[in-house]
Amino acid sequence: MTAEHDKILSLDGVSVAYKDNKVIDQIDLAISSGETFGLMGLNGVGKTTLIKAVLGLRDYDEGTITVNGQHNLDGQHKKCIAYLPERFDPPWFLSGLEFIKFTMRLYGVPYDQEKVFQYSERLALAHDVLKNRVQTYSKGMRQKLGILANILSQSPVLILDEPMSGLDPRARTHVKDVLSEIRAEGRTIFMSSHILSDMNEICDRVAILHNHKLIFVGTPPELREEAGNDNLERAFMQMIERV
Questions:
Q1: 1 falls in which pLDDT band (50, 70, 90)?
Q2: Contact at 8 Å (CB) between 160 and 147?
Q3: Mean pLDDT for the stretch of residues 70-96
Q4: Residue 77 has what pLDDT?
């Protein structure tokens, strides 16, 4: 159970509908400061819709959402969140380094070249590549750039929608290592992913969104135990097939 004073993100009775089609129905969720939380679900169940509602990019029809103690995030309070969208396409005319500098200015963070290069190397994004325009980047390189910008924002909450998209196994390992370090700093990570083995490895708790509702919230071991299967992917499938 998440202690009230530890909540950094909470949803109470949140519903979202497109016209007459309810996508999210009466969702309650509380995420603690310093927690890595994973959102699971099949394609089209509303994971990105839920994320956009949290970010204030999508209106919700019922309920309340609180982020870092604020119900309505203005420009200043939105700096508490860094966001990586599912389809991350930075401005093509900027170099990677220009995009990083722009992001750090946006969040009011002093530019520290040593720190930028340190994290870029950790993410297997050679700092020489940062001088090139992002239009020359592969999908995986753009994804690493987006993760790098999120980390360097110093925001207490990182919301990552499919952060491993386009990454090879080596890059995924690097990203997971860095995200684990970020968590150790007390920052909160809220992520969605179809790669459930990654969720199993780095998430403190996970939730399953299915048929408009959260049908499970708990630790990966609790999910495996409730489904009666030691494989997290198969446990996930068994849980949604019960509904």
A1: very low
A2: yes
A3: 83
A4: 63
Predicted confidence (pLDDT) at residue 239 exceeds the cutoff of 50 = yes
Strand pairing of 213-218 and 205-210? antiparallel
Could you tell me which CATH class the domain 4-242 is placed in?
alpha beta
Section 190-217 average pLDDT: 94
Tokens of 196: 């459930």
- Helices 96-106 and 139-152 pack at an angle, to 10 degrees, of 30
Measured on CA atoms in the order 197, 151, 81, 67, is the torsion positive or negative? positive
User: 45 CB contacts (<8 Å, ≥6 apart)?
Assistant: 209, 210, 211, 212
pLDDT at position 74: 60
Domain definitions of the chain by residue range: 4-242
Q: What is the mean pLDDT of the chain?
A: 91
33-37, 53-57, 219-223: lowest mean pLDDT where? 53-57
